[in-house]
Amino acid sequence: MQTDLIQEARRQAEICNACRYCEGYCSVFPALHRERAFSDGDITQLANLCHNCRGCYYACQYTAPHEFDLNLPRALAEVRQASWKDHAWPRGFAHLFDRSGVLMAGGLVLGFALIFALAQALRPDSGAGFYAYMSHGLMVTIFTPAFLLPLLAIAVSLRGYWRTVGGGPVRPGDIWGALRSAGRMKNLDGGHGDGCNFEDEDRFSQARRHFHQAVLYGFLLSFASTASGTVLHYAFGIEAPYGFFSLPKLLGVPGGLLLSVGCAGLAWLKLKADPELGAPAAWGGEMAFVLLLFAVAVSGLALYAATGTSAVAWLLPLHLGAVLTFFLLTPYSKMAHGFYRMAALTRDAAQNRAA
């Protein structure tokens, strides 16, 4: 990790530790106040606990033009981004998405969509629903490694992160505490329940928390929809297409709607917020990730709405291209933050238990 980023974050953390005005804010501050000196691992852990709600910045008396020039949200955001890149595996891909995220995501989606469109020439003579355009076997052959290999890359990355922050054995209660915190998005309520200040300076708002929850639960419902379809196919021999009142659709349609609304909301808030309070160099990559996830959700809903029409022939390749791009970029895009955030929350729960 870049030493200057760590050093600057350490300088600001030491000033915050002496001031303690923000003691009642998010989980960063109780964790920060447990320490008297900060190792590189401590700073990395604090950075990944930070949700960039920015309340501490707007409450701080030591921001510019004060000589201390504190901007803790930015300092931690830059360390956080650097930690993901340092632990990414294979490391050679780590910085590609940040440099030209929108271009890369768009190019991959269109490229993969073209390949899937050409692959329709290999479709079986018989098949219903999507399988009339592309065989089930071909989809499984492509998407199984595209799903499992990024998970392996994330697992290797998290192992490195856990070592850096000095993580030890974990108890089930620590994981449960982290899951509850993530599910409630409690660190986006500003520590006082009024919300955070992400998009409008000293105005408190729950918007970012709610949009994050929509994305989280929409993603989980969509994943559960795919998983339930897999179980129906292999365990019960019930093949797609599925009716609206089937489990895959009852999970997938609300999941897609939540994802669409959540991603659109987060993109809107990101456009309103001050980029100087995050990691400016990563702004494009973060926006590209939100737009990519939005494209996955919207194309999936459009594909379902177009069932039985000729539009499926071009909507299916676009949707599959977006999904494949999303899977392959997971270890190197903002999607990685969910895994690191869970690791940081788990580590924090373990430290709170031991304190």
TrEMBL record:
InterPro entries associated with the record: Citrate_utilization_prot_B, NarG-like_sf
Keyword Magnesium tagged: no
UniProt keywords, alphabetically: Membrane, Transmembrane, Transmembrane helix
Keyword Transmembrane helix attached: yes
Membrane-spanning ranges: 101-122, 142-162, 214-238, 250-269, 281-305, 311-332
Protein name as catalogued: Citrate/tricarballylate utilization protein
Organism name: Marinovum algicola
